[in-house]
Design a protein that fits this description.
This protein is an alpha+beta fold and about 180 residues long. The protein has one domain. Helix content is about 30%, strand content about 30%. The strands form 3 sheets. The protein has a 4-stranded antiparallel beta sheet. The chain is globular, with a radius of gyration of 17 Å.
């Protein structure tokens, strides 16, 4: 359980900011440039409006400096905290997003028509679903579909991604775009 928490923490620290824009274009904070087409892939066109997307909104941890230190401590042989992992509840209490940050992000995402169905036990990840139209509008991005070299089809944000300023500061990244 701690390994998963540490993995999420590490992904939060290395995930580029990539989601911020909801209601008014003048209040958008851009958090990612989007991605280039996957190597060897074929563009199929715009994502159909009703395509359902399942995303993860990764929240900023509270006290990220202490979190980075904790990750170092539990990973360093000889450190008294080496391999002394936290339960998800302990992690949430020490490093997870605050209840008010979770409530604000959840409320803003829901106000755009997205469904926020779950919060991870460590309070850092929200499961969010919605149509391609809702996702593109919420995150102020362009969604394209590609077929990769193995034949898999993926929906990809090909332009920068943004969120409304009131919640942008609480979002570290978006997984699934």
């Amino acid at each position: 359980m701690v390994t998963a928490a540490v993995a999420v923490c590490i992904s939060v620290l290395v995930t580029p900011l990539s989601a911020q824009a909801l209601v008014r274009p003048s209040t958008i904070d851009w958090i990612s440039q989007g991605i280039a087409a996957p190597l060897g892939s074929t563009l199929l066109g715009a994502a159909p409006s009703r395509t359902r997307l399942d995303l993860r909104v990764v929240l900023e941890p509270k006290n990220s400096g202490a979190l980075a230190q904790f990750i170092n401590d539990v990973s360093t042989p000889g450190n008294p905290l080496y391999r002394h992992f936290l339960s998800p509840a302990e992690f949430a209490q020490r490093f997870g997003a605050t209840p008010s940050a979770i409530a604000l992000v959840r409320s803003e995402l829901r106000s755009t028509g997205l469904t926020v169905s779950a919060v991870s036990p460590n309070n850092l990840v929200l499961r969010v679903t919605g149509s391609a139209t809702q996702v593109a509008a919420t995150f102020h991005t362009k969604l394209q579909r590609y077929r990769d070299i193995s034949g898999e089809i993926a929906t990809v944000a090909t332009s920068r991604i943004g969120l409304a300023s009131p919640i942008a500061r609480y979002v570290a990244g978006i997984s699934g775009l």
